[in-house]
Amino acid sequence: MMLEGKVAMITGAGAGIGLAIATRYVREGAKVCIAGRKKNKLDEVVASLPPGTAIACPGDVSKLEDAKRMVETTVEFGGKIDILVNNAAIDPGGSVVDVDPEIWHAVIETNLTGPFYTMKFAIPHMIENGGGSIINISSLASVRCIPTMAPYCASKAGLNHLTNQVALDFGKHRIRANSVLPGPVRTEMSEHSLKGMAEAMGSDMDGVFKQLTRFLPLERAASPDEIAGICVFLGSDDSSFVTGETILVDGGASMVDPCGAALSLTGAAGWGAAPR
Asked: Is the domain of 90 the same as that of 204?
């Protein structure tokens, strides 16, 4: 029961990583307010959890009034807010040349402005309560670019820096802020985003993820619950001296050199000539 007595707000909690975090948080003793744009999915999640442990708050984090209402609903439900998990995100693609400006703004407003809004309203409550933990779900794409994903990569890189700014500015109030950077995770969102790749490969989704992860040291994608685990730690008192960190949860993807990975396909022993 690592989170016993704590109250958390989790955005994008109707499916995928957000759902896994909400489920784990309740299991660890927390009360949760789950937020998202799809009311029916949120209601299903609440119904699946023990009575009194969760409440749904439909809304769009990119809208200022919705973000404010989400925080207020959390405080009304639990009496306080100890943990804020900013997980809501969208990921339409495009290079800077061909992406529609409306798409650009939608991604930035959801992935970066949304966390700004929720933190803006949650932090005063955390200060009043004597502290708190903010966990922003970023991405490996914030430190390693993905082809033709300019809006998404830029939004997540910005989120990392915004997180560190919050850690710096509010540490004196015992508020911690950290970024979690997942690598490939098999979720409904990632499968939807990879449909084009599956069609191009003439493959099913298992084949797509096998191709995506063949150079990872762990040679597989993560499950949402594996991302939830680090979020339990960051929300708990066990991480009381951890702040301003960008924590990679990527199966080792960030340390793989593309040239070295290509070498592995040849069956070569390694890089470099024998000593002369």
From this structure: no
Residue 150 lies in a domain: yes
pTM score, two decimals?
A: 0.92
HSE, side-chain direction, 13 A CA sphere, residue 129: 18
Residue of 25, 77, 152, 170 marked active site: 152
Residue 111 and residue 138: Cα distance in Å, rounded? 9
Q: Could you report the per-residue pLDDT of 154-180, keeping only the tens digit for each?
A: 999 999 999 999 999 999 999 999 999
Both 166 and 195 in a single domain?
no
**Residues near 199 by beta carbon (within 8 Å), at least 6 away in sequence:** none
β-sheet bridge partners, residue 35: 11, 57
117 is catalytic: no
* Same structural domain, 124 and 190: no
Does a structural domain hold residue 214? Answer: yes
